[in-house]
Amino acid sequence: MNYYKNFIKPILFQIDAEKAHNLAIWALKNNILKYPKIINYNSLKVTICGIEFDNPIAMAAGFDKNAKVISSLFKFGFGSIECGTVTPKSQIGNVKPRIFRLKEDKAIINRLGFNNVGIEGFLHNLKKQSINQTFGINIGKNKDQKDAAADYLSLLERVYGLSSYITINISSPNTKDLRNIQQKSELDLFLQNIAGKKSELIAKTGKIIPIFLKIAPDLNQDELKSITDNVLKNQIDAVIISNSTISRNNLKSQYQSEDGGLTGKPLFDMSNEILSRFYQLTEGKIPLIASGGVFSASDAYEKIKIGASMVQIYSAFIYEGFSLVEKIKEDLDILLKNDNFNNVSEAIAKDVTKYN
Question: Taking a C-beta distance cutoff of 8 angstroms, is the pair 61, 85 a contact?
Fold first, then answer.
């Protein structure tokens, strides 16, 4: 019996989506949820950018924006947790309501707008936890900041060395002009600044912390080529593909016309196309972390076979519950064995041209 689907989900889905999310954070913080038995599979161990992960199933940024429950989330079997997005100053985000469940589509639309407690509160929450596993910090800019690079560089200074990796989020559709950084005219200089700051911090701290870049799925071929060229040129360590989409194709739910970023099942094919093309454009020279529409082991496996080294999930937990992590791991291990792979790394990009 699926306890979440039969008992918890019907209650949560009667509550406003953002209130339900806050309730989940409260429950995790107070350790009142039932945790599954965690099983580690040798076939799922993966190393990316010198970081060893117990498995390739990760929590995407956006769930634990303020780094309150990282240690609790690991009790569900994740290979990694990405917390944030955090900005230098606290901000309340956009006007409520700003999260919408598209039940018939197994999707979510949000227009939160980087609501978070700011870097001071974020670091305070982080220090209160004992975290021994690999996790990432996702950083962004404040809404009113005109000089975007200034915010990212100041945050790099503050969080460098506190996590296993740092993600530069320039792809949320809910902060005005943020996605413009992805454009060719801005991206090269922006990434040069990031690379320069990383070199400075390596010299200062003696630590080499990988920098990931999170991009949007709403990119044409020229935009994607420009991003791949600049990522390789400026030595970004890995790319997360992808953030939420602003497109609205073939949706059924009543909230389909709400503004914001769409995540969940409808994003699966779109993000896969970008993932496959990105892998081919970079000739596999940079690790890719896939996000968008993963609800099962077969979904995760498809993303791995078209180029992903790891897979992030979020929306699926709202519909399936946190026990999904162990289910995906169990089934993914079986899928790998059925295809005679000893380790998940052997399956990466084995079907990379599927979306050509």
Answer: yes
Which residues are tagged catalytic? Answer: 172
pLDDT one-digit tens code per residue, 179-208: 999 987 899 999 999 999 999 999 999 999
Judge contact between 347 and 334, C-beta under 8 A: no
User: CATH: 3.40.50.2030, 3.20.20.70, 1.10.443.10, 3.40.50.2300. Which one for 3-347?
Assistant: 3.20.20.70
Taking only the tens place, the pLDDT of each residue in 29-43 is: 998 888 999 999 999
Question: What distance in Å separates the CA atoms of residue 63 and residue 73, rounded to the nearest whole number?
Answer: 10
pLDDT in tens, 264-305: 999 999 999 999 999 999 999 999 999 999 999 999 999 999
9: region left, alpha or beta (phi > 0 left; psi from -120 to 50 alpha)? alpha
Instruction: Tell me the domain boundaries of the chain.
Output: 3-347
